[in-house]
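[#protein-structures] MJ: dropping Major facilitator superfamily (MFS) profile domain-containing protein here for a structure pass
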Amino acid sequence: MEQRTIMKKPFEKTSASLEIVRVADPIHVQVQPLTSERRWIPKLSEAKLLLIASTGFFIDAYDLFTINLVVPLLNIQYNGKLGSKLGNAALAGGVLKAATNIGCIAGQILFGTLGDVYGRRIVYPAALGLAIIGTVLTIAAPNSLGPQGVFIWMTIMRILMGIGIGGDYPMSASVVSDRANINRRGLLLTFTFAMQGWGNLAGAIVCMVVLSAFKESIQGHGEIGHFNAVWRLILGVILVPALATLYQRLRLPESDRMTEVLKERKLKKAFEGVQGTHIMADILDQIGNKEASASVQQSFQKSKLSALNEFQEYFSKWKHMKHLFATTACWFLLDLSFYGIALNQSMVIADIGYDRAVEPWQNAFDNTKANLIITVAGFLPGYYFTMFFIEYIGRKPIQIGGFLIEGLLLAVVAGDFKSLSTKPAGFLVCFILLQFFFNFGANTTTFVYPAEIFPTRVRGFASGISAACGKIGAVIAALSFGELSEVIGTNGVLWILAGTSFLGAVISLLLPETKGWDADEADAFEQAQQL
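AK: finished. structure tokens for Major facilitator superfamily (MFS) profile domain-containing protein:
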């Protein structure tokens, strides 16, 4: 078929069978056929990029899963008790679990903004490097500090680790979106985010392998102190893929889109600052208009912060701010329920009596096995359903449908909690479905939306703010779940999470469908209209 050039309106949808190719004119695109076979076969460069970009999510999910299992091990080692509540205070375990997410909030905003200001190439590997340092320091916690000292040490170092992991959210989203073909962008972003599922799976497998290796000494000889080596090995294994990926990120060049943005800023600053502002100031000085001259000079100084000014200028418009509100609010509400369940899954499993074993090793192994079943049957497949359908049915139906089904499932479990607590198999089925629709739903699309709806020049900042609001929800969930469950019961907490899921579906109505949309084209079109 002959290639043709068309005029494209901002946010105009394109056919799923067409490939968008950027040309010099920011308002025009070329369209050429894209076979369904090519859609599912990543190019070598795409495959390499996806592996580099997805490692951060692998680490994040691995950490999320393993800390959920490591806390009971710490409790056995340092307090001689079974369960996920450190000592007698539910909050103690919650703070340790929430530490990484607390760091993520700062990292997402910091690295997202820096990535827009200085470019992705410099900032991207720095985020992973910080996560590696935090992990090393976490597993190096000295036993000489005593139980309380170890918990404090781990909490501080996991916050540092979280800053690095947090930076990976906006950076990976931006790096992939900057380079992606429009009608493959959702698929590539979902593939990147889907590494969370593999991180969960790897966490479960590593936990079971390490526990099995120490079974004889712990179960056979009662050497509980060996749990000290178990939890350090479990948390430290993630350093292997992290270090391998860091080398690749250091060699990753800047994307064409971001290079173009950085060049445009330099040209704009040079033109406005040297050829425009100083000349105009001299003219105003000569005619005696000192006040206007000072104003022009002041504008020149402000142009030095052009990237930050762009954020303010772009989001000062309600139509853009509305989208930012929706992406941040939806991610916040999603993570309340997602992390409320994920970080406390071991606690809920204990509440239904699945890990009734009183022998420490068997208790830890049963807990890991239950979490593994949920991951393999529900958590991981959900990502790939999204990957398959996202370019066909779009982001908005998946997000709204996911929120509604999550709310319904949480309401069912909350309403029939006592009955289900006597039927572990039925409870696990509900949790498997819940994890499936988290990922074939809003957990994936809340990541995809900010990377697609905002243009390159503010994408890192917007993705970082949206992700940070999500992590605020995660921190609230981690710190409050244990406390609330003791006051209103686990079923009462699940009712609250059901309500937040339904609210997320309502707020999602503010978002447009981004399938086939090019935010950079729309941004250029909008700027051209303002000239």
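MJ: nice. DSSP finds 21 helices and three strands in the chain.
AK: one more thing. The two ends are 37 Å apart (CA to CA).
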